[in-house]
Amino acid sequence: MEHKYEIPLLYDRHNHVGFYAALTNCLDVRHDKDYDNVIKTIKKLPNKMNLVMGWTFLDYNNEDIESLPPVLICDQMLHSFIINKKGKEILIKENAAFVENVDNSEWIEKKLPSILTLIPRIQGITEQDMVEFFYKLEENGIYSTDDMLAIDNEYVALVKNGKFANRCRLWADHETYNNLSPENKKKIAGIKIFLDGALGPETAATRGYVSGKNGLLLYSDDELQQVLTFISNERLPVAIHSVGERGIEQLLNILESSSLPIPYIRVEHAMFITEDIARRCKKANIILSMQPNFSFDSLLFKGKLTDEHLEQNNPFRMLIDKVGYAPGEDMFFSSDGMPYGVKAALESSLFPPFSGQILTLDEMVKGYCIEDKSKGTIQFNIENNKFCDLMVQISIG
Ligand SMILES: [Zn+2]
C-alpha cells in the first residue's frame, strides 16, 4: 500500500547554525564507519590546523592520531574532542586551558559552551558561510531555526543584520550573554544553560549506564539557584540542557521550592525523562524540546546503556498518551543538527527503534513544522511502512 503525503517546511528549534556554518568546509567523517579509512582520509589533510567533525569511534589508537597533520577532532555528539600534539602546539595560543584539559571529560562538560563557541572562531565565519548554510537548511526542508549558542557580538550582528534574521532566533549561554553589548543582548531570545553532559563520555546525568556510573551534574543546587535567579531577574526565557533524568529532577526541586518567576522554561533533550518527572514538569509549565533523531541512540549506545534504558529513551508515547504533553503546544521537536533535515526527522519520528518512541505524522507535523504551507512543502510516500521518495518544494519569496 502506497500513501502520498505533503507537509509544511520545518522549524528546527534546536540547532547550532553558526557552528555548523563555520564548519561546512571542514572534513566530516560521520558517514564513514571504517576506522582505517577515516584515518587515511584525515592523513590527506594539509599541514595546518585542521578541524574534523563527526568522529564516531569510541576506541582509537594514539599512534594513528599522532601520525595525522595538526588536528582537532570533534566527536559526533560534540561532547568529546581529540587534539594531537601538532594540533596542541597551535591551539595552545588560542585557549591553553582547553588544550590542557581536552581529556578531562568533567572539565569539557563544564566549559562546553566556551568550546562550542571557540571552534567556529578558529575556523572563521563569514556572511557567505551563513547564506550558504541557510540554503542548505532550505534544501533539507528547514525554513526556520533556533541557534542555541550565539558565538559572540560579531556573530549576533552577522545574523541579525543578515538575510535570514527573521528565520533564526538566537540563544546564548550565560557567559556569552554577559559578554554581549547591551544592544545585542536585546536580540537574544533567551539563555541556554547546561545541567549535564552527553551519553558518549557517560556525563549525561542518568542512572542507566551498564558501568554503574550515573553521569555528571554540572551545577550544585546553590549554583543552579543563582543562575535561575539571574535569568528570572533578566526576565528572559531559558532553555535547559538535560539529557538525563537527574538534571531535570534537580531543576524541579529548585523550581518547586522557590517559585522563581521565569517567563518560559524549556528543557532540551529530556531523553530519559520518567513518567513521575514528566508529571512534575507538566505541572511546572515546562516545555519539552526533544529530538526524534536521538531515538537512534538506542541503537548507538547498545552495551553502554542497560537494555531497559535503551527502551526508555525518548518516551514519546508515555509523554503524550499518559502525561498529556501535546506536540505544538508544550512539546516541540528539533534535530540539534545531528543530523538536521527532514529525512532524518521523518524516519526517526515514524520508524524509530522502539514502539514507545513512535510519533504519528500528525504529532510530528504539529511539533516540528511551521504553521502553513505558503513557504513551501515537503512531499513523500510511505510504502509498506517505509518512508521514501522525499521531495522538498521551496516557494520562499
Ligand atoms: Zn545542542
Provide key terms for this protein:
binds zinc ion; four-stranded mixed sheet; single chain; 397 residues; TIM Barrel
What does this entry look like structurally?
- Strand 7 (142-147), helix 8 and strand 8 form a beta-alpha-beta unit.
- The chain is an alpha/beta fold and 397 residues long.
- It starts with a strand and ends with a strand.
- The chain has a domain at 133-151 and 186-366: TIM Barrel (Alpha-Beta Barrel), CATH 3.20.20.
- It contains 18 helices and 15 strands.
- Helix content is 39%, strand content 21%.
- The strands form three sheets. It has an eight-stranded parallel β-sheet. A four-stranded mixed β-sheet has the order 3-4-5-6. The chain has a three-stranded antiparallel β-sheet with strand order 1-14-15, covered by helices on one side.
- The chain has helices at residues 17-22, 35-43, 62-66, 85-91, 96-100, 105-123, 127-139, 153-160, 174-179, 182-185, 221-234, 245-258, 275-283, 297-300, 307-312, 316-322, 342-350, 361-368, and strands spanning 2-8, 10-15, 27-28, 50-55, 71-75, 81-83, 142-147, 168-173, 188-194, 238-242, 265-269, 287-290, 331-333, 376-383, 386-394.
- Bound molecules: zinc ion.
